[in-house]
Specification:
Blueprint (H helix, E strand, L loop, with lengths): L6 H14 L4 E5 L8 E6 L4 E10 L4 E11 H14 L4 E6 L7 H4 L1
Parallel strand pairs: 2-5
Antiparallel strand pairs: 1-5, 2-3, 3-4
Length: about 110
């Protein structure tokens, strides 16, 4: 069995990593501190955004970040609101970067 970080520890580490490279990020909604899923919204500062959720790649037996929705920011926000309706334990983070940097590939 693989040890997993609690949600709040992962979120804290991710926000710190973004802070180090100067990418603004915010907690929009706090989920369950222990086992809440995490959704990351990347606002591209041009009216568009992308939302990522963590998934599992069976082929490589690893966790990956999958795009939940990509498009106009109001559409992305509506999709996030629907996800929160399904999962009240969900963490929602917003990253703001016009260059599209989200650092998720470094965070596993």
């Amino acid at each position: 069995m693989t040890a997993r970080l609690t949600a709040h520890v992962w979120v804290s580490a991710y926000l710190r990593r973004l802070q180090i490279v100067g990418i603004p990020a915010y907690v929009i909604h706090r989920g369950d501190a222990t086992a809440g899923a995490v959704l990351v919204k990347l606002a591209l500062m041009d009216g568009t955004a992308r939302a990522y959720m963590r998934g599992f790649d069976i082929a490589t037996d690893s966790r990956i970040w999958q795009v939940l929705i990509d498009g106009a920011e109001p559409d992305v926000d509506a999709a996030i609101a629907r996800q929160r309706g399904f999962d009240p334990d969900l963490w929602v983070l917003e990253v703001e970067d016009a260059r599209g940097r989200d650092m998720l590939s470094e965070m596993g």
